[in-house]
Amino acid sequence: MPAATETREAVEKLGQSTYKWGFETDIEMDLAPKGLNEEIIRLISSRKEEPEWMLEWRLAAFRTWQSMEDPKWAKVSYPPIDYQDVHYYAAPRTKPGPKSLDEVDPALLKTYEKLGIPLHEQALLAGVEPAEGERLPVAVDAVFDSVSVATTFRKTLAEAGVIFCPISEAVREHPELVRRYLGTVVPAGDNFFAALNSAVFTDGSFVYVPKGVRCPMELSTYFRINARNTGQFERTLIVVEEGASVSYLEGCTAPMRDENQLHAAVVELVAMDDASIKYSTVQNWYPGDEEGRGGIYNFVTKRGACRGARSKISWTQVETGSAITWKYPSCILQGEGSVGEFYSVAVTNNCQQADTGTKMIHLGRNTRSTIIAKTISAGRSDSTYRGLVRVQPKASGARNFTQCDSLLIGDRCGAHTVPYIECRNMAARVEHEATTSKISEDQLFYCRQRGLSEEDAVGLIVNGFCRDVLKELPMEFAVEAQKLLQISLEGSVG
Amino acid sequence: MSQFLEISGLNARIDADGQEKQILRGVDLSIPPGEVHVIMGPNGSGKSTLSYVLAGREDYEVTSGSVLFQGQDLLAMEPEERAAAGLFLAFQSPVELPGVNNANFLRTAVNAVRRARGQEELDAVAFLKLAREAAKTLSMAPDMLKRNVNVGFSGGEKKRNEVLQMTLLQPTFAILDETDSGLDVDALRVVAEGVNRLRAPTFSALVITHHQKLLDYLVPDRIHVMAKGRIILSGGPELARQIDQEGYTKFLSEAA
Fold first, then answer.
1. Domain locations in chain B?
2. B97–A445: do the CB atoms touch at under 8 Å?
3. CATH class of the domain whose range is B5-255
4. Which residue in A147, A199, A444, B101 could disulfide with A62, CB within 3.0 to 4.6 Å?
5. Which of A372, A433, A446, A485 to mutate to test the interface with B (most CBs of B within 10 A)?
6. B254 backbone dihedrals φ, ψ, rounded to 5°
7. Between helices A454-470 and B102-116, what is the axis angle to 10°?
8. Contact B59/B20 with Cβ under 8 angstroms?
């Protein structure tokens, strides 16, 4: 089925409500009192049954955070956030500890079913290839507010030596690994939101792929914010040893609410010699309504360290949600010949604001990076690409290619490109290309003359504009992303 | 007898840089089913505007007049509804769609039109077979289906791509807006053959051109001369040859 037909059908199914993930799950919650102080941090730590060192680490981060201020340099505006008016811990009231799928609250299973996230394993029988057109099995870690409620395919993965579990469990079960890597890529005091996250992070995923292992299936984490007045502070750590590889995807949604909710995540990736990590995001947090009421504030620090020679980290993101997006997935290219990639589509509509981009830090010799950023603005939204390419003195032979393209729909939106290039090595090569265009009346009329509706025409043109990025996504998710693009831009023309 | 296409007293204007400019000033034109009509005329006489107004481009405001297409009020329809009803416009300057695969675009268009006409949609395999055959008949390089719509196409390739779209969309009424301009003799023949293959008692065409060459291959039924936003003269195929030899000046002064 061609993309445009599929997107059209997706849109038709939605009817009037554009954000179909906006429902709420009625479930009994274990909620920490509002506010942020050492007591709350101790509470979170004890709920997670954490060792002492973890609590100390959190408290140190909290003290650092207290001395910091919100960053003001991004091109986004929002009223001051009252950090004392937020619940920092919210969990469905179920039995703690590792659980099998049978023990998970049926209300939760239903929620994920409604979201289209497979939490059942029956699809995978040992040695049986799925029939053509069927979904390939994907291991899922489902995070609901502050806790992971289920992680699938753990046995299959364990047989391959891969650890895939909630990070709170990893802290208990694999403390030596977590301790060795946590905070080594994004230090607790890296920035305001990273410090906040380090103090109060609740759940997220931990992935460890041992030497020489290609992870046998796609891994994914699905984040869901449900409770009112809560923040979600996810923490993800992925470590891939020498010669190993993994492809990981995260998705996110939240109910439609009039108030803003905070999501401040930290993601750390570590790749050793010849290791490769592909990290894809389809970010679909509730963006707020047409007037800009509600929506998620998404303040995220994502960074990968290419520690080993010839290692590779590739970030692909499709950002359609959130009222505010503040996010710069980055690569530290330390190992000789290591490779960093950043492929991004950021869509803003109505009153959304996005300030997103990447940092490529070239430390090692012959390191290479590629940045392809596509920005689409519609409605009254404002979108900024902000990127840094830094070549350090020892990075001889480093190369970077950057391409930033902006597409404007309508005449009330804005698109901005802010590239920073710092080159301290004469033998490096850095290229930057940028374009800004509008969907022209000529293009729309041409498509409509051939029989396409206006919505289909916009979908087709936008998907064409994003093709270089969408083709980097795992196939299943590329289709989802295409649908999402069209839905996000619904009603933006005419 | 009700005509296939009936244009009466058509007036249209465009808002150019805040100034309203009247371009069509009372166009009257009837095209019976199965006929190929030609519009010739000096630059700026309103030929392309007429084709855009018929196809439904929103930049133009129709101030009075009517257009009946197979009994339907054409001006009340959206551009895509006109396409579904069988109207096809081969653009003078075909538009580029970066990143949009040509085969995917064609199939999306064909299926949109088929859906609107109550026909079954074509699956990828059936469509590709059809498209490859059509491309071959038009002497198009096989990779043109894989490339992005009109991006990096030569002038001749763009025009062939228009004829390919026309062939696949199966219109009952085709407007060709200077599709022959800038084409060599071979390409010209390909375009003409593309139209000739569609010729049937239920198919009509309106061809805008400056050159007699295309008409040698097309064999039109009627020639109309347009000037200052009106049809000032109509005649048989011999009129085109006369214009080719003598130019427009004589006709314009006679009409004035």
1. 5-255
2. no
3. alpha beta
4. A199
5. A446
6. -65, -40
7. 150
8. no
Tokens, residue A486: 């069209």
B224 residue type, one letter: H
Nearest-neighbour CA in chain B from A445: distance (Å): 7
DSSP code at position A285: -
Q: How far apart are CA A373 and CA A346, in angstroms?
A: 8
The segment with the largest mean pLDDT, out of A17-31, A176-190, A251-265, is A176-190
Which residue is associated with the tokens 């007429």? B50
Torsion sign across C-alpha atoms A243, A244, A247, A250: negative
Whether A213 and A244 have beta carbons less than 8 Å apart is answered as: yes
For residues A165 and A154, the answer to whether their CB atoms sit within 8 Å is yes
Say if the Cβ atoms of B89 and A468 lie within 8 Å: no
Contacts of B95 in chain A (CB under 8 A): 440, 442-443, 445-446
Domain boundaries, chain A: 1-21+254-494, 28-75+82-120+137-219
Q: What is the pLDDT along chain B (256 residues), one digit of tens a residue?
A: 467 999 999 999 998 777 889 999 999 999 999 999 999 998 889 999 999 999 999 889 999 999 999 999 999 999 999 999 999 999 999 999 999 999 999 999 999 999 999 999 999 899 999 999 999 988 888 888 999 999 999 888 999 999 999 999 999 999 999 988 878 888 888 889 999 999 999 999 999 998 888 898 988 999 999 999 999 999 999 998 888 888 888 777 765 5
Do B81 and B87 contact (CB within 8 A), yes or no?
no
Tell whether B120 lies on the interface with A, counting CB pairs under 8 A. no
- Grouping H, G, I as helix, E, B as strand and the rest as coil, residue B84 is helix
A contacts of B111 (beta carbons < 8 Å): 2, 5
Q: Which residues of chain B neighbour A450 with C-beta distances below 8 Å?
A: 83, 105, 109, 112-113, 165, 169
Q: Does A445 touch chain B (CB under 8 A)?
A: yes
